[in-house]
Amino acid sequence: MTTTWKSDNEKSKVQKSATQTTNNTISDTMLSSWSRQQKLAMIAGFGILGLLLIISACSKQSSKPALVSVSSPGAASTVPASAATTATAASTVVASPLPAPTKKLTKKRPANVQFSDSNFGVSFLYPRKAMLNSGDKARPQFAGLGDASMNFTQPGGVAVATVELPNGLYPGTDFASAFFNVNVNRSVSEQECAHFAFVDSHNVNGAPVEAGKIRVGSTDMETTSNFSASAMAQTETQYYHSYENGACYEYILSLGTAGYGVKDGAEPVNRDEVFAKLEKILATVKISPVAQEQVAEQTVSVVASGKE
């Protein structure tokens, strides 16, 4: 019996040892299995956490440049392409120079002015600085010698216009006045228009000098001259006649002088130069056709008014 118990006891021990071994094996197996799952879970958790950290960092970096671009213009390298383009455009607009002020163009006025009279069809150019009188104020005056007389052989002349050169045109000389005058007479025939009421009397024997012929532009004219003087003033005058539009057109070029030999320091003016200025006006004269109705009205008006 002792041997049997002993065997049973040993058997029991053997069974217990086997059971413990089995349990230990199961426990080790479960422990080993749980550790792998835990490791995988932990690795996955770390992976997700890392991904979240990366996304968060990217999000922060994308929002940072907008703040930097507003507060610090120097941080342009961190600004996205679209933001950089906008900032560059804005800075370009601000930095662009202001447009230069537009210079006001001033038109240079012509040196000459045109006069035109439709009633008699006469027009001409004269210097802007000269003084023009027309109509009733067109009757000129010789310097210190009163009104300038028309040189028609018949009465009925009408003063159309007078241009007076500036008085101070020749300082330091005896220049007193100079004018260009236009008169028209419809009571004079074409044959009478070729003559003058008075002509140059500076012939050596005192006889009148016959009128000469001259071509001014495209117009043939008759011309004469006259000289008159007083103790203080002298006047030299040139007359020109042409027949057009059924009327006699008269042009007077006159120079008045005073003071030479009396006024201290006064030198004689260059007469050729003065007459050259007046002749330039004469060269621009143009005569346009006039309607017969206007001619009739003017003739009646002249006769009624009793003008020269």
Describe this structure in words.
The protein is of the alpha+beta class and 308 residues long. It has two domains: 2-72; 112-305, Jelly Rolls (Sandwich), CATH 2.60.120. 38% of the residues lie in helices and 26% in strands. The strands form three sheets. A seven-stranded antiparallel sheet has the order 3-6-7-11-10-9-8, covered by helices on one side. Strand 4 and strand 5 (146-147) form a beta hairpin. The longest helix is centred in the first third of the chain and has 70 residues, at 2-71. The chain is rod-shaped. Mean pLDDT is 77; it is low at 1-7 and 65-77.
Number of strands: 12
How many structural domains are formed by the residues?
A: 2
Strand content: 25-35%
SSE pattern: HHEEEEEEEHEEEEHEH
What is the mean pLDDT?
Answer: 77
CATH C-level label of the largest domain: Mainly Beta
Uncertain parts: 1-7, 65-77
In the sheet with the most strands, the strands line up as 3-6-7-11-10-9-8
**C-alpha Rg (nearest Å):** 60 Å
Q: What is the CATH topology of the largest domain?
A: Jelly Rolls
Named CATH architecture of the largest domain: Sandwich
Cα distance spanning the termini: 193 Å
Structural class per helix/strand content?
Answer: alpha+beta
The helix content is 25-40%
